[in-house]
Specification:
With about 625 residues, this protein is α+β, with helices and mostly antiparallel strands. It has 3 domains: about 200 residues, Threonyl-tRNA Synthetase, Chain A, domain 2; about 230 residues, Bira Bifunctional Protein, Domain 2 (BirA Bifunctional Protein, domain 2); about 100 residues, 3-Layer(aba) Sandwich (Rossmann fold). The protein has 18 helices and 28 strands. A hairpin with a 4-residue loop joins strand 27 and strand 28. Bound molecules: zinc ion (ZN) (2 copies). One zinc ion (ZN) binds next to helix 1. One of its GO terms (molecular function) is tRNA binding. InterPro entries: aa-tRNA-synt_IIb, aa-tRNA-synth_II, aa-tRNA-synth_II/BPL/LPL, Anticodon-bd, Anticodon-bd_dom_sf, Thr-tRNA-ligase_IIa, Thr/Ala-tRNA-synth_IIc_edit, ThrRS_anticodon.
């Protein structure tokens, strides 16, 4: 195979190759089921899919058959040939071939143009996307007997398609509309080389093993109860330890960075959200209001307006700024029930939120401090692979966001300078900014390479107008306040989901819900085991709640069984005690990774855990 000596593909070459693989798959399906009718088949992240109307319901065995046919066609080195046709001829041709969905697409193209098609079908590859008016001519790509409406470009020959694997079959309504027929969406993964494909498949397998929903249940971290409601996770004792320790970490870091902590209520009058702009625009993302004393109250979807009220409660002079207000704030947002997923997508969440109120001349420095705070957290948690994603508005369409473009440009420059000074990697994404200011998302990768968007930061220069946030300057006049919104540890919910995958549930000592378990070898050691347990329980370990998180396993089971159980619970230290340990006031320490540290005096073990916890060390 020629894959080995293939050079690294650029992102657009990769998408081109994946899109070509979609054609190859459709060509294979057409050979196997000549009556197949095709919807759309774009390239997507990690691969491609094609929506198809088939005379049979595909089974997993069919995927193997299709894959084999694809290989056969690939090795025939079929060229991708481009043909241009007037749109009416194209409609006639597709009609002749019985491709009803393509005829429908062509008619839509003819009447409304490609933007409408891209929007409705999720496929931007049909024709060039910027035609908002009707299209008069279209292009087709021919691969063997298979002909597809497509703007291209493609690889030259099927043999240039890299390594692929068909992954799964899902249902997808034609044109995303549930009133239409449900088609079969066949997904494939495709990469330039077999090594990359294998790496991706490994990552998927590993992600399954580390799935936070699975581990969250096995490790008693959270539970979702039908009687409480979907998307409203309940934190069990083990999960609450994770939250408490993370919150403590953020309290410490924020204190050092000059934040004050505040607390705000969960429900609020509608009026505040009209002021903030959440109402009426975001009403559908909020929970339905309740009426109290003839007034509408909402569950809060964001903490910002409340924090602004605290700022407004007192007058501020230039000397008071920056003012940094932090809260683990509980918010509620309505998500469609179909979109809910474990801790990743929830309806109620606690945000590691803060708002920094500052002068324009302080904004860059403050943003930089926020970036540095992120990198400290990431270093501590062994997150090495991350970058910032800077969302900027399209400068030509600035009036879409706000009618003061110069303020936008100022704010963007502040953020950009801070990013440059931070030395952290970033990318720029155009045309994506939130409407009240440039924003940065931190994208982090778990050790197995899954990317998560955890934290959003914004430089907000509009709050000053909406809320009248001002300070009195040295000149005695009122000046606008800049607000930085930040939440480095995101919501507890999403961040814990990330950490479960990242650590595969084997948390470092400072985070581990249970840090040690005492295991007597035989019944006659129970008394000493209890003494050890009590010493550790009361030991001076600076956890969120002082004292070691320790358990005693004196059940009538074999020692091996208890060790196995503790390993499954990913408890860092197993302390086995028998005659020798009882005599010497010691514990035999085994680590969850099977390493045997042998016997050590009890106070030495306490000192070891103390040190790990103080440093929040990843080592056991
Ligand atoms: Zn195509
Ligand atoms: Zn905010």
């Amino acid at each position: 195979m020629s894959q080995k000596n293939e050079k690294q593909l650029s992102e657009s070459e990769l998408m081109q190759m994946r899109h070509s693989a979609a054609h190859l798959m459709a060509a294979a399906v057409q050979q196997l089921w000549p009556d197949a009718r095709f919807g759309v088949g774009p390239a997507v992240k990690n691969g491609f899919y094609y929506d198809m109307d088939l005379p049979v319901q595909l089974t997993p065995e069919d995927l193997g058959k299709i894959e084999q046919k694809m290989r056969e066609l690939k090795n025939k080195k079929l060229p991708f040939e481009r043909v241009e046709l007037p749109v009416d001829d194209a409609i006639a041709e597709m009609d002749k071939r019985g491709q009803a969905y393509k005829v429908e697409l062509l008619q839509l193209l003819k009447e409304k143009g490609s933007t409408a098609v891209a929007k409705e079908t999720g496929d931007a590859d049909v024709v060039d996307t910027d035609s908002s008016g009707g299209v008069t001519s279209v292009s087709f790509y021919k691969t063997g007997d298979f002909v597809d409406l497509c703007r291209g470009p493609h690889v030259n020959s099927t043999v240039q398609i890299g390594a692929f694997k068909l992954m799964n079959i899902a249902g997808a309504y034609w044109r995303g509309n549930e009133k239409n027929k449900q088609l079969q969406r066949l997904y494939g993964a495709a990469f330039a080389t077999k090594e990359e494909l294998d790496q991706y498949l490994w990552q998927l397998e590993e992600a399954k093993k580390r799935d936070h929903r699975k581990l969250g249940q096995e490790l008693d971290i959270f539970v979702i109860s039908d009687e409480v409601g979907p998307g409203l996770p309940l934190w069990m004792p083990n999960g609450t330890v994770l939250r408490d320790e993370l919150e403590r970490l953020s309290k410490e870091e924020e204190r050092r960075d000059g934040y004050y902590r505040i607390s705000t209520p969960n429900i609020t009058k509608a009026q505040l959200y009209y002021r903030s702009g959440h109402l009426p625009f975001y009403r559908e993302d909020m929970y339905a209001p309740m009426i109290i004393d003839d007034e509408e109250y909402f569950l809060k979807p964001m903490n910002c307006p409340h924090h602004h009220q605290i700022y407004l409660a007192r007058p501020h002079s230039y000397r008071d700024l920056p003012l940094r207000l932090a809260e683990y704030g509980q918010v509620y947002r309505y998500e469609q029930s179909g979109a809910l997923s474990g801790l990743m997508r929830v309806r109620g969440m606690a945000q590691n939120d803060a708002h920094i109120y500052c002068r324009y001349d302080q904004a860059k420095e403050e943003f930089l401090r926020v970036m540095n705070l992120h990198s400290r957290y990431y270093k501590l948690l062994g997150i090495d692979d991350y970058y910032m994603r800077f969302s900027k508005p399209d400068l030509n369409k600035l009036d879409k966001y706000v009618n003061e473009p110069e303020k936008w440009i100022e704010a963007m420059n502040v953020v950009k300078e801070a990013m440059d000074e931070s030395g952290l990697p970033y990318i720029e994404a155009e045309g994506e900014a939130a409407f009240y200011g440039p924003k940065i998302d931190f994208m982090i990768k778990s050790v197995i390479g899954t990317e998560y968007a955890i934290s959003t930061n914004q430089l907000d220069f509009l709050a000053t107008e909406r809320f009248g946030l001002v300070y009195t300057g040295e000149d005695g006049k009122e000046h606008p306040v800049y607000v930085i919104h930040r939440a480095p540890l995101g919501s507890h919910e999403r961040f814990v989901a990330f950490l479960i995958e990242h650590f595969a549930g084997a948390f470092p000592t400072w985070l581990a819900p249970v840090q040690a378990v005492v295991i007597p070898i035989a019944d006659r050691h129970n008394e000493y085991a209890r003494k050890v347990y009590e010493t550790l329980f009361n030991a001076d370990i600076p956890n969120a709640i002082n004292g070691m998180r320790v358990e005693l396993d004196d059940a009538r089971e074999s020692m091996q069984k208890k060790i196995r159980k503790a390993q499954l619970q990913k408890i860092p230290y197993m302390l086995v005690v028998g005659d020798k340990e009882a005599e010497q006031g010691a514990v035999a320490v085994r680590l969850r990774n099977n390493q045997d540290l042998g016997s050590m005096p009890l106070d030495e073990f306490v000192a070891r855990v103390h040190e790990r916890v103080v440093k929040r060390s990843p080592e056991l």
